[in-house]
Amino acid sequence: MLFERPEAGERAVLVHLEITGRRDNEDPREFEELVRSAGGDPVALIFGQRPAPDSRLFVGSGKLEEIRGAVQTHGAELVLFNNTLSPSQERNLERELQCRVLDRTGVILDIFAQRARTHEGKLQVELAQLQHMSTRLVRGWTHLERQKGGIGLRGPGETQLETDRRLLRERVKTLRARLEKVRAQRAQARRARRRADTPSISLVGYTNAGKSTLFNLLTNADVYAANQLFATLDPTLRGLAVPNLGDVVLADTVGFIRHLPHKLVDAFRATLEEAAQADLLLHVIDAATDERDAHIAQVEEVLAEIGAANIPRLDVYNKIDLLEIEPRIDRDEYGRPVRVWLSAQQKKGADLLLQALAELLGGNLAQGDLVLGNDDGRLRARLYAAGAVLAETAQDDGRTRVSIRMPAHEFQRLAMHEHFDPAVLQAAGRTIGSGSP
What we know:
Layout: E1 11-19, H1 28-37, E2 41-50, H2 61-74, E3 78-81, H3 87-97, E4 100-102, H4 104-115, H5 119-133, H6 157-195, E5 200-205, H7 211-219, E6 236-242, E7 246-252, H8 262-267, H9 269-276, E8 280-286, H10 292-305, E9 313-318, E10 328-331, E11 337-341, H11 350-361, E12 365-372, H12 377-385, E13 389-394, E14 400-407, H13 408-418, E15 431-432
Parallel strand pairs: 1-2, 1-3, 3-4, 5-7, 5-8, 8-9, 9-11, 12-15
Antiparallel strand pairs: 6-7, 10-11, 12-14, 13-14
Helix pairs in contact: 1-4, 4-5, 5-6, 6-9
């Protein structure tokens, strides 16, 4: 039987098969959102349950007939499984149903392909697609399988298949080399920020938790934000001025999802390293969803996979307007911020988040009072040039008290150049410089 892959369309029959005894079955509501995010039109949702998937068709014969009936009734061009299918199962189902069949990973890859905008994002998506395609390449040449061997049956089929595989391997190698160059460029940028002692903060969280909306609120950026899964794929970095702290770099990253395909984690490693190398992670959480705990656990799993599990973290509970509660900061027994409740959409609580950031990242700051003598004009000018002076007060004896805040390493370097002990900052009111009595 000759078999060509059918053309794809938008009308889709969704199939959700729960495996009995498995605790990590997918969420059918989330899958429907994924399909809509991909541009699909779900016309039917079919549920099933089995102790184990069928090795040939994943579903049983009765469920297959139910799916076929739904496809014919609704004129669907796609059947989408909220499960992971093997290449042979996809191929067999397409042959039986005479329409395109995709699994959960295929749907996510399609969304990523639609949303990638930057050169780096497109490279990452193409790599993930090719890695996924490599195990399914045989499908495109199924109609030539009869030419693979035997008297009178030899032909170009196997040759063409091997050619495709070789071209695919070469393309994957090229993409990996380009992404390695991107990783090197990002690493160089991070080293430059470290030399300048500019803290870096990465937004992480489950997809559609509101990361991009919060990013836009904090940085006045115009990153695409929408109430849909994977609205953001391309990483964006912006400077953020935190009161009482100074400038930091804020990074918006791709959202995580339950059972994020390893191909995507691997392909997006250059992007995810922004989170793995950050000084602080802002874990943005949809406070209003019923799946909140499950989403938090999934983010924890991905962070562990990319080596970011031990980075200091601040939980940001977003969308509190849906819960009708007020913004607040939750603290641990030592008084340190551990949780901020806000609404990025309603622009409520951003000031509390900035306050928490200043407290958490302020440990590397030198702050206090200095009393400058009459001959300390150069030091005073350098403090102002560094933007370190918060307040200045003239004293009755003609000297000047200045309150300062600046990165600790810069203060140490300034003390060395101006020949004073940096420890004087810890004792407010101590006089330094040549005008000292």
